[in-house]
Backbone:
């Protein structure tokens, strides 16, 4: 099974700390960032399969990260997570090319499911069963 | 998701403090009322009546005097008339007497005149007596008698001696002439005297009219001046009360004079109004606060999602990996959960504390800490609008005597206004420092946003003045803030340049400048 | 792809446009065809449901309370039908209650007056001077209806993503615009919006179960957790709270129920009417 390269960006340290092993368990190789500037730098260096990013962050917000990723490589699936979920924000994210949008709080499985779908869309299925067809 | 249009769920029960605060005010009100009513009453109406009564009394006296002098004049005129008639008779008698001595005509008719003169004196006895007194009257009467007697003697002599001339006659004629002459001159003298007296009387009456008018005018002027002053001073005072109340100073009216009057009732009514306005304002302040809370809760709810998400993820991973985790990991995870729970609690605590219905509770406050709280409260709004807030403070500032809830609301109003005026990515500075005046601290909220155009600068503190779209602004923020600050003995000032930004400065008296002094000055000048 | 919710001043127009979209773009349709299912599930008459949807509000009409109840039934089933995407929905008032879901494209279609008059008065031609009066009356009725039941005015353009006037744009063109807009990326369903719909469905189902007994109830779903507000006298507080908990618990998918009892409803009424 191929590894799915995932970049996880959230200024909340616990998110990265806990989700990294959670995603690793289903066969993802996760790089965790808290600082969006460093994350953007890393994105420039490397093509990730999936970028998971928080929206509301200090210096650079998630929308900018999304734009950056899409501009660089639109094969990369970007998943937005946010505590400030609103219809307008969701529509904006989708319009800018996000793969999915999920509101905080979510369960690790919610994110795994989305990543699994992204992986499938990329043709690199991971070790997570998509049994929900919603 | 809401399945029905949501209604704001305002909590019903009032907090304990606000009730006790209201009680306190009610007690103040009762005290003021008692003090106002304890004074003796001297009403404006009484003063008006008194003035009229005075004028009336004075008029009566004057009229009596005038009537009296008219009577006197009348009396004197009549007397003069009597004297005139008397003189006519006497003169007639003397004419007969003269004719008699010159031509030997009949003297009897002269005697008739004397009788008539006598009758005149008799008839007008009282009148003459009242003016001349008994002596003069008696003198007149005896003169007349003597004259009569002299005339009679001549007549008798004539009858005895016929028409023959007698020497005695000549003697008599001299007597008679002298007697007549003296009678006339006596009467004329008297008449002249009385005439001057009459003139004096008339003159006096004339002067009395003028003096009366002058005095009446003086009385009227003095009375209306006192009355007008009394009323105008009061009206002016109530004008200042109205201005004071409008500016948010709800000190009750307390007695200022030694007596009470109609204005006392007005004072009571105004006090009642102040109490009602105050209660209503409290409701308004609370509802405006709840509106602010409403705009903040959205942000806070979102902010809460972060710690909750952390707890959720940690919890799920804890369960999922429980068996494979070692002791240290488990502890670490649970520690995270505890920390995040505390974080969540802190996020709401501030808002809940702010939302609590406040009674007026005065305490020495650390303004810098209040500002920090307030900024934390608005942090989500700031974050969402991507506005940086800069807070600077002077260390060791004296405390301010005030109501923390209300002051926080004022600061929040200013900060929210500044956010509304700023562009995304903008900056807001909040500073607390000693004010230029001693014993005051200044709080400055500076934004670099739209600024306020000159033509509306004068109206921004007016209630309901807003330039924000309907549903976004009520226009009550600044007017309410001004009221609250005024109640704390402070001031809000604004400096703004269109396109450059605005600076709102609040100055508040510090605790070392006792609040009592303010209350006392109020008593003194009210 | 997105789901489309159509609202129009003319129900015939809405139906025609919806049908065209189904034909052309491969959507499935949700319309009044679901009413028998609603009637069966909530044990009421289909005619009553139709009446709740159509009959104008007014003095002798169905009371708003009753109307809200039938609409709650309709809402519960309609939302369920809206869960799968690529659906066109009309005639069920969905534009009033399906709010805040990013992949619902809400469209308002304004019909030509002649068309509307024909529909309102099928018997024959209407004299010219009565036309505007008739249309105004119809509009007033619908406004009142939507206010009575959902507290908002369905003629308000703010409710919609797209408002198309058939006076200016041909129906064929309108259909094209709608399908093209629905294909925009911002209407793509996502985990968040689908979760919103799911929560919506759950809340509506719970409310439909409660509404007969508690017409004032407000229900919010947060994942599998329900937050319910009801009104009750203080002495009934405990009893009703547990009753509500029990009833809500029977709805599949509900895990946790939190009930808030508002005891001071007179105070509440005073507050809200201020
Ligand atoms: N910092 C500021 N910059 C520019 N304009 C301001 C600023 N503060 C206040 N204003 C102007 O003053 C008006 C009145 O402000 P105020 O706070 O009283 O009401 P509001 O903000 O409109 O409504 P509310 O406070 O109830 O939301 C505002 O509408 C705005 O035009
Ligand atoms: Mg304001």
Residues:
């Amino acid at each position: 099974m191929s590894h799915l390269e995932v970049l996880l960006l959230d200024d909340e340290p616990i998110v990265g700390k806990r989700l990294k092993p959670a995603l690793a368990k289903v066969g993802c190789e996760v790089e965790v960032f808290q600082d969006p500037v460093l994350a953007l730098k890393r994105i420039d260096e490397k093509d990730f399969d999936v970028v998971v990013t928080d929206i509301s962050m200090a210096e650079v917000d998630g929308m900018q990260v999304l734009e950056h990723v899409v501009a660089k490589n639109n094969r990369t699936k970007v998943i937005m997570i946010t505590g400030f979920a609103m219809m307008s924000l969701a529509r904006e994210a989708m319009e800018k090319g996000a793969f999915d949008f999920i509101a905080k709080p979510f369960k690790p499985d919610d994110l795994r499911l989305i990543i699994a779908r992204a992986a499938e869309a990329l043709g690199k299925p991971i070790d997570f069963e998509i049994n929900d067809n919603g | 998701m809401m399945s029905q249009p949501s209604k704001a769920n305002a909590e019903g029960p009032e907090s304990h403090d606000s009730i006790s605060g209201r009680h306190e005010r009610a007690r103040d009100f009762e005290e003021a009322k008692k003090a106002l009513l304890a004074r003796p009453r001297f009403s404006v109406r009484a003063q008006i009546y008194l003035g009229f009564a005075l004028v009336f009394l004075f008029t009566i006296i004057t009229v009596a005097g005038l009537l009296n002098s008219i009577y006197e004049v009348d009396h004197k005129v009549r007397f003069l008339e009597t004297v005139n008639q008397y003189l006519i008779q006497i003169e007639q008698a003397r004419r007969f007497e003269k004719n008699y001595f010159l031509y030997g005509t009949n003297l009897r008719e002269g005697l008739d005149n004397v009788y008539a003169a006598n009758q005149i004196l008799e008839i007008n006895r009282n009148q003459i007596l009242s003016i001349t007194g008994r002596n003069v009257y008696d003198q007149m009467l005896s003169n007349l008698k003597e004259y009569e007697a002299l005339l009679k003697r001549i007549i008798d002599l004539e009858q005895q001696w016929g028409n023959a001339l007698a020497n005695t006659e000549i003697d008599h004629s001299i007597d008679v002439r002298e007697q007549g002459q003296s009678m006339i001159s006596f009467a004329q003298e008297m008449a002249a005297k009385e005439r001057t007296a009459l003139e004096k009387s008339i003159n006096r009456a004339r002067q009395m009219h003028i003096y009366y008018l002058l005095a009446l005018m003086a009385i009227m002027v003095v009375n209306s001046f006192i009355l007008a002053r009394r009323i105008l001073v009061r009206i002016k005072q109530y004008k200042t009360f109205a201005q004071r109340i409008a500016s948010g100073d709800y000190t009750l009216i307390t007695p200022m004079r030694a007596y009470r009057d109609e204005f006392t009732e007005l004072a009571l009514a105004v006090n009642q109004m102040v109490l009602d306005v105050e209660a209503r304002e409290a409701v308004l302040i609370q509802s405006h606060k709840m509106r602010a809370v409403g705009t903040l809760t959205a942000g806070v709810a979102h902010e809460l999602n972060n710690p909750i998400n952390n707890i959720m993820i940690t919890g799920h991973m804890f369960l999922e990996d429980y068996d494979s985790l070692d002791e240290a990991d488990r502890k670490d995870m649970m520690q995270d959960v505890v920390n995040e729970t505390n974080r969540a609690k802190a996020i709401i605590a501030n808002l809940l504390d702010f939302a609590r219905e406040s009674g007026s509770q005065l305490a020495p406050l650390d303004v810098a800490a209040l500002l920090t709280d307030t900024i934390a409260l608005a942090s989500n709004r700031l974050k969402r609008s991507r506005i940086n807030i800069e807070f600077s403070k002077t260390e060791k500032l004296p405390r301010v005597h005030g109501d923390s809830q209300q002051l926080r609301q004022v600061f929040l109003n200013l900060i929210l206004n500044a956010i509304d005026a700023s562009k995304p990515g903008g900056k807001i500075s909040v500073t607390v420092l000693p004010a230029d005046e001693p014993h005051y601290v200044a709080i400055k909220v500076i934004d670099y946003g739209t600024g306020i155009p000159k033509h509306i600068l004068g109206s921004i503190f007016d209630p309901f003045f807003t330039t924000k779209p309907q549903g976004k602004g009520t226009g009550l923020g600044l007017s309410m803030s001004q009221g609250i600050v005024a109640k704390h003995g402070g001031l809000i000032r604004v400096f703004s340049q269109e396109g450059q930004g605005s600076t709102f400065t609040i100055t508040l008296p510090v605790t070392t400048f006792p609040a009592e002094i303010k209350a006392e000055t109020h008593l003194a000048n009210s | 792809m997105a789901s489309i919710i159509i609202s129009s001043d003319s129900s015939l127009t809405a139906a025609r446009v919806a049908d065209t979209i189904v034909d052309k773009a491969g959507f499935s349709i949700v319309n009044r065809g679901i009413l028998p299912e609603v009637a069966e599930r909530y044990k009421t008459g289909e005619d009553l449901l139709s009446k709740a949807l159509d009959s104008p509000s007014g003095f002798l009409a169905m009371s708003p309370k009753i109307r809200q109840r039938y609409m709650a039934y309709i809402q519960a089933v309609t939302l369920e039908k809206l869960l799968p995407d690529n659906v066109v929905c009309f005639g069920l008032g969905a534009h009033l209650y399906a709010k805040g879901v990013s992949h619902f494209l809400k469209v308002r279609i304004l019909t030509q007056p002649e068309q509307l008059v024909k529909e309102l008065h099928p018997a024959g031609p209407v004299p010219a001077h009565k036309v505007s009066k008739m249309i105004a009356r119809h509009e007033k009725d619908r406004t009142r209806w939507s206010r009575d039941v959902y507290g908002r005015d369905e003629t308000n353009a703010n409710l919609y993503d797209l408002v198309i006037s058939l006076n200016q744009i041909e129906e064929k063109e309108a259909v094209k615009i709608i399908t093209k807009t629905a294909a925009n990326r911002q209407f793509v369903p996502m985990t968040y919006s689908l979760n919103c719909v799911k929560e919506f469905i759950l809340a509506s189902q719970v409310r439909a179960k409660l509404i007969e007994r508690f017409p004032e109830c407000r229900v919010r779903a947060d994942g599998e957790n329900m937050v319910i507000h009801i009104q009750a006298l203080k002495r009934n507080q405990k009893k009703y709270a547990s009753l509500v908990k029990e009833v809500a618990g029977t709805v599949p998918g509900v895990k946790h129920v939190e009930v808030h009892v508002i005891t001071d409803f007179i105070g509440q009424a005073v507050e809200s009417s201020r």
